[in-house]
Design a protein that fits this description.
Number of strands: 4
Strand order of the largest sheet: 1-2
Mean pLDDT: 80
Oligomer: single chain
Largest sheet: 2 strands, antiparallel
Shape: globular
Strand content: under 5%
Number of helices: 20
Length: 438
């Protein structure tokens, strides 16, 4: 007679509850979407009580996470990526302290941005929340693109320009009007994010109607990018689109034909004024005092002055910045390069910290993306932000906060490796009967 083996009882109801506690609720999903949409559109929203609505949303999200999601918040804050960012903040604080005319405004704002990123990571705990954040990029991009088409497309169609200088003058005139109240270079990056997500969703394994709808959204967003006449924004869009194509690996024939049609129609519809902005017929333009190369030359010429310990953000935005070639007609300009900006502020140690953060972010990117639109979305957004760092004007840009937040959240919860938990075993049944849990 077969002996009956005694097996340890496992309370799988408790295991199910532990898994459920990591799922986001409806309220958390709403505030995540509101934050993702309002951050790029903050210039359109009036301030309340002297502070922006976006800042108040971040504060509210932070208080909610502290009170109701304390353990998740602590877990996210201890992620290696954030630990590396804390090192950058400490280095920046020490370097700024040793300089005369120290100004901690940039460090304070950068710290607030990091805290907002930690909150985002603690609330992005399941695929539904991540999908809503990713899709909110498309919504924001569509709103901005429609606004640009309504306010600028007709004007650009009737204006004829002959070269890049005239196109730049037209862009400046339109920009002075600021019909959308936002820096157009930054707007191009925001719209590019939505265009890339729409492109990814269009190439997912869905119906033809679904494919055409999201290709149409990508098309409208691409028009918006080129209407900003931002060369950096267009370059970011094209480079990231090529990267997404590489990630997808094999595009189905119907999607390839759709993509070709979109490119052809896009080339036909973009106004000649916007196209002239992207022409590089006279390379001596890069020696113009109005070109970005002026800032790069200033960084190279004054490299010995900031190579080791920087000059401090207070000095950069003060007399040193005005006398070193970073000054313009409206005051001191940003370096338009994240890496150079941090190096000028706080020296080589801060620069190495930024490189380490980029390496850590690459290390924790989703693996084996396949046709998973969420993994493709996270990976492409982080790549886009990395390319954007070479032209970014503000080191505390909230786009980086959302990008790092969804990366950490997806790494801890959404794409975490699954554990094999054996079910209770009944004598005579196979011992390999298992279940998958997050």
């Amino acid at each position: 007679m077969r002996s009956i083996t005694t097996y340890k009882y496992t309370n799988y109801n408790a295991i199910g509850k532990s898994r459920v506690q990591y799922s986001t609720n409806t309220f958390e999903r709403i505030i995540l979407v509101l934050g993702s949409v309002f951050i790029p559109l903050q210039n359109f929203i009036p301030t309340i009580g002297g502070s922006s609505v976006v800042f108040q949303i971040f504060v509210f999200m932070g208080l909610y996470a502290v009170v109701f999601r304390t353990s998740d918040l602590i877990k996210a804050a201890k992620h290696p990526i954030f630990l590396t960012i804390y090192i950058l903040l400490i280095v920046a604080l020490l370097i700024e302290f040793i300089h005369d005319n120290a100004d901690y405004y940039q460090i304070n704002r950068l710290t607030i941005t990091v805290l907002g990123s930690v909150v985002y990571a603690s609330l992005c705990r399941d695929r539904t929340a991540l999908r809503l954040i990713i899709y909110s990029y498309i919504l924001t991009s569509l709103l901005l693109s429609i606004g640009l088409i309504v306010t600028s497309f007709g004007l650009m169609r009737i204006i004829e320009v002959g070269n890049i200088q005239e196109a730049g003058a037209v862009r400046q005139e339109i920009y002075v009007e600021r019909p959308l109240g936002m820096n157009w270079n930054k707007m191009a990056v925001v719209i590019s994010q939505g265009a890339i997500i729409a492109l990814i969703v269009a190439n997912s394994k869905r119906s033809m109607i679904y494919t055409w709808v999201f290709y149409a959204l990508a098309f409208l967003s691409a028009i918006g990018v080129f209407l900003t006449m931002s060369r950096s924004g267009a370059a970011i869009l094209i480079i990231t689109a090529l990267y997404v194509t590489f990630l997808i690996g094999r595009i189905r024939l119907k999607n390839f034909v759709s993509l070709i049609l979109i490119v052809v129609v896009l080339a036909y519809l973009i106004p000649s004024t916007a196209v002239s902005r992207y022409e590089f017929t006279d390379w001596s333009l890069f020696e113009s005092p109005d070109a970005r190369m002026k800032l790069l030359r200033a960084a190279i010429d004054h490299f010995p002055e900031y190579a080791l310990s920087g000059v401090g953000s207070g000095n950069y935005w003060g007399l040193w910045g005005r006398l070193s070639g970073f000054g313009g007609t409206h005051g001191v300009l940003c370096a338009h390069n994240y890496f150079i900006q941090v190096w000028v502020y706080w020296g080589i140690l801060a620069f190495l910290c930024v490189l380490l953060i980029c390496w850590m972010a690459r290390k924790y990117l989703p693996r084996n993306v396949g046709s998973d639109e969420l993994k493709l979305g996270v990976k492409s957004m982080l790549f886009l932000l990395f390319v954007y760092m070479f032209t970014a004007s503000v080191i505390r840009d909230k786009s980086f906060a959302i990008g790092i937040g969804i990366l950490v959240g997806s790494n801890i919860w959404v794409f975490a490796k699954k554990r094999l938990i054996p079910r209770y075993r009944v004598p005579g049944h196979r011992a390999s009967n298992r279940r998958l849990l997050n």
